[in-house]
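Structure first, sequence second, as always.
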């Protein structure tokens, strides 16, 4: 059913949902271990004037089912009227509070991902129809080189995917480092050196929550010694620390970190830590949706909110979050999970259009080696992705690569992300704990 002010300029006539799997190394985190493949879902919206709009979201059977459930709502809609489509989606998707996010490092909700996929694909269509980049439709381009941060992980040996947990002894540079184990400060520094040399990143994040805080703090101090005070550092224990540990170890890191990300759980816990230490706190775990914003303002739970268009309901919603952050004096940074080039393009358009983005964005992109967009792997220049100038997102699907990645999905047997089960394959009996140290 058309919205009151639909443009009648174009209509969505087809919606295709393709689950894919990309090789992923055995990276450690608070919830366990990455599987040999990460799952993504690619959405294509086709219109009656022959355009195709793209989006990519974290993959799972639940997300695919949620997307399929709104197909008949999406077909017939006007991609230029996001408000009308979003209102219709809201009637179809079951309500979802921030509690449905779950206690894992990533976000377990589906509704926000349906919104995100539709918003991004419609913006891609709108950009293609109007002949402008998505960033222009988000309010205008404020930077055409979007800076990303190196994202380090403790890891076991191996590169995942086709290579399984083996190692290619011929590989050199970052390709070799990507396969090597990194389980102590020296391994983390070596990983950082290779990643920075390959991609030119100017800031560095370490995924924590894997080992006792003293060990992760030692790794951060080793990075600080190696890269000096001009390279901003971040540590993200994914809320595995108690409030007391967060204060103790946060004090150790004053003057060393750019920000400490989610040391502990809940807005109240974060607020207590924030009052006790002189270090900015960032979050993608305690303030994760619009429902959480009143609590964030009341409790002053963090200094920086990490947006992620997959989990905040799209690019328009992320811009709304940025406006809230401006109003309430929060900084904005960007969270990531494993992703391919469609998401990297969407993140880059968002970064290009967000006036108050003052931090380099997170990206897992260097951990993958495959790509599903034409032209293959997107290049970084001095740690930045240059905003594509073509209309829309500026990326086209490589149909053969998509078919291969879909085949990998069918063969890998994974239906959702479960890092606990993967860790148990290496460490029998290993159990996730929402708070560990
Ligand atoms: O990829 O293991 C991972 C991360 O732990 C990811 O799932 C988190 O969502 O990167 C994320 C974060 O900043 O919390
Ligand atoms: Mg985080």
């Amino acid at each position: 059913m058309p919205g009151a002010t639909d443009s009648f300029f174009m209509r969505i006539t087809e919606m295709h949902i393709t689950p894919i799997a990309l090789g992923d190394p055995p990276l450690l985190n608070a919830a366990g271990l990455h599987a040999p493949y990460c799952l993504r879902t690619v959405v294509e919206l086709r219109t009656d004037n022959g355009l195709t709009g793209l989006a990519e979201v974290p993959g799972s059977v639940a997300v695919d089912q949620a997307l399929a459930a709104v197909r008949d709502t999406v077909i017939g809609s006007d991609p230029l009227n996001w408000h009308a489509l979003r209102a219709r989606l809201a009637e179809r998707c079951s309500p979802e509070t921030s509690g449905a996010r779950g206690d894992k490092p990533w976000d377990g909700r589906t509704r926000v991902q349906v919104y995100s996929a539709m918003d991004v694909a419609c913006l891609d269509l709108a950009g293609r129809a109007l002949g402008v980049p998505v960033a222009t439709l988000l309010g205008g381009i404020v930077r055409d080189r979007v800076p990303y941060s190196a994202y380090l992980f403790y890891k076991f040996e191996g590169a995942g995917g086709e290579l399984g947990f083996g190692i290619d002894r011929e590989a050199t540079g970052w390709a070799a480092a990507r396969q090597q184990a990194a389980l102590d400060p020296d391994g983390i520094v070596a990983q950082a050196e290779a990643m920075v040399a390959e991609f030119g990143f100017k800031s560095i994040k370490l995924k924590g929550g894997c080992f006792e805080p003293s060990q992760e703090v030692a790794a951060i101090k080793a990075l600080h010694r190696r890269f000096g005070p001009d390279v901003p550092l971040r540590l993200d224990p994914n809320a595995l620390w108690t409030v007391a540990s967060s204060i103790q170890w946060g004090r150790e890191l004053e003057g060393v970190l750019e920000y400490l990300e989610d040391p502990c759980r809940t807005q109240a816990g974060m607020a207590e830590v924030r009052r006790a230490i002189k270090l900015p706190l960032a979050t993608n775990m305690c303030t994760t949706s619009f429902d959480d914003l009143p609590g964030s303002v009341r409790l002053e739970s963090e200094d920086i909110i990490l947006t992620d268009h997959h989990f905040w309901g799209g690019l328009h919603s992320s811009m709304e979050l940025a406006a809230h952050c401006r109003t309430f004096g929060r900084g904005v940074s960007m969270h990531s999970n494993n992703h391919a080039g469609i998401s990297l393009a969407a993140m880059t358009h968002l970064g290009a259009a967000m006036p108050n983005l003052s931090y380099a964005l997170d990206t897992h992109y260097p951990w993958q080696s495959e790509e599903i967009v034409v032209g293959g792997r997107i290049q970084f220049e001095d740690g930045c992705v240059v905003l594509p100038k073509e209309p829309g997102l500026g990326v086209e699907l490589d149909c053969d690569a998509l078919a291969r990645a879909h085949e990998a999905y069918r063969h890998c047997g994974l239906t959702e992300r479960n890092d606990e089960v993967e860790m148990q394959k290496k460490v029998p009996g290993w159990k996730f704990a929402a708070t560990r140290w």
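Margin note: The radius of gyration is 21 Å.
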